[in-house]
Specification:
Layout lengths: L1 H7 L6 H14 L10 H28 L4
Length: 70
C-alpha cells in the first residue's frame, strides 16, 4: 500500500495531479459516492471522507519526504 502511494506521489504535485491522486485514493478505499449515493447522503459523508483522505495524503507525503526519488 505504501509503495502504491509512493508511486503516485512521485508525480509532479500540480493541483490537477493532486486532485486525480485524491480521486484514485478515494476509489481505492471505496469512498467515491457521487454515483452510488444520492446527493443528500453524500453530503452527510463528505466531511468524514475529506478527513480520511486528508490524513492519507499527509501520511503519503510524509513517506515521500522520507524516501525521495533519486
Amino acid at each position: 500500500m505504501r509503495l502504491c502511494f509512493y508511486y503516485i506521489f512521485t508525480a509532479k504535485a500540480s493541483n490537477i495531479a493532486l486532485y486525480r491522486t485524491r480521486r484514485i485514493i478515494e476509489t481505492a478505499f471505496g469512498r467515491i459516492t457521487w454515483h452510488a449515493r444520492s446527493r443528500e447522503m453524500e453530503r452527510n459523508h463528505t466531511t468524514r471522507r475529506r478527513a480520511i483522505t486528508t490524513r492519507i495524503v499527509i501520511q503519503s507525503l510524509a513517506s515521500f519526504q522520507i524516501f525521495p526519488t533519486q
